[in-house]
Design goal:
Blueprint: E1 4-8, H1 14-24, E2 30-34, E3 46-52, H2 60-69, E4 75-82, H3 91-101, E5 106-114, H4 119-125, H5 131-139, H6 148-170, E6 181-187, H7 193-206, E7 210-216, E8 230-238, E9 241-242, H8 244-252, E10 260-268, H9 281-287, H10 290-300, E11 304-313, H11 324-335
Parallel strand pairs: 1-2, 1-3, 3-4, 4-5, 6-7, 6-8, 8-10, 10-11
Antiparallel strand pairs: 8-9
Helix pairs in contact: 1-6, 7-11
Bound molecules: flavin mononucleotide.
Amino acid sequence: MVKVLVAYMSKTGNTRKVAEAMFEEIDGEKEIKPIDEVDTIEGYDVAFLGFPIHQEGPDKKAARLLEQHCTEGRKVVLFITHAAPGDNPELPPMLDKFRQAARGAEIVGFFDCQGQLDKSTKRIMSMLPSAKLRRWAREDNSAGQPDQARLDRARAFSRSVMERLHDIGREPQAASAGRNLKMEYFHASKYGNGARVAEEFKKQMAGRGIAVNVRHVREAKPREIPPADLYLFSSPGRMGKPIGDMSRFLKEARLPAGARCAILTTELAPQPDKSGRLPSEEELGKCQRMIPIMDQMVREKGLVNVARTRVFVTGLKGPPEEGWQEKVAAFAAQIAPSLSPSAEASPARPPVLTAA
Ligand SMILES: Cc1cc2nc3c(=O)[nH]c(=O)nc-3n(C[C@H](O)[C@H](O)[C@H](O)COP(=O)(O)O)c2cc1C
């Protein structure tokens, strides 16, 4: 029997609502309380720890509590609420700060969703000197969050994490030790660029003893994805979004919460304007939204995204920009350690429950 703690920090009630929804789905021995009332998470098999984003990450107290509780040997599930919409490109680095603060423990699941920005904070933000905060207040669309759909997603996530934890308890120790590492790579290449990138990636990983099964999404059934140590999703862009085939595949994909994944996009290289100036990252992020959209889709499934990259192509139909093989090699090098038996996210531990 797994003993579970759900603990949360919540100023305006959003994170508490998510905590309660997750708590209801947990069977067996369980406790829920504000994190202020938690002395230690020792004695629990897993602790769900929830926080709001404050000023682009955990506030000082949240960071301190995460560092205090997330120590060697502890298993934690993080859940975060934020006013930024899920596909906001500014969000992933904010969420990464929570992972960083919790890195001493094994992060066995990660969930986030929007939570209403309270009115007084919004009013203050709209009057501050910072142009960024004023923009956030102006663009805020978080009213009414977390809504029923998000709370349902939190429940489904909690069930899925608990199912995995129960399964792991039943798995013989030897089952995962010493076996071959395996990746499932799904691409939606239209003009062959994504397919070339996939083959190069496969070659790079083969050199490291990691088998990569590459398939076009049209050749794969999203509801019958075989178990793997990591899933890679690669898409070309269409009008700044992932191509329809990939969006549909990701929407339908059935994968266990906590499974590791990575995202790669093949995007048109930034074009200079008449004066020869290239767009800034911020300008680019406004029109090229493939990575944030795919990021959000995998997060909504409770997957843990360990890496993301863009490979530029020189024209609408390609070819990939010079040096693309090096970029793919760097991406493979970034991913491989998270699969290595000696790494933190070790497959000798339950593979789908570890995080970057
Ligand atoms: C002081 C303060 C700072 C915040 N900073 C951010 C931020 O940087 N990014 C963001 O997406 N939301 C931000 N928010 C919004 C909260 O993260 C969001 O409303 C959250 O759901 C609140 O959770 P709670 O009701 O559990 O306190 C901030 C809220 C407050 C009060």
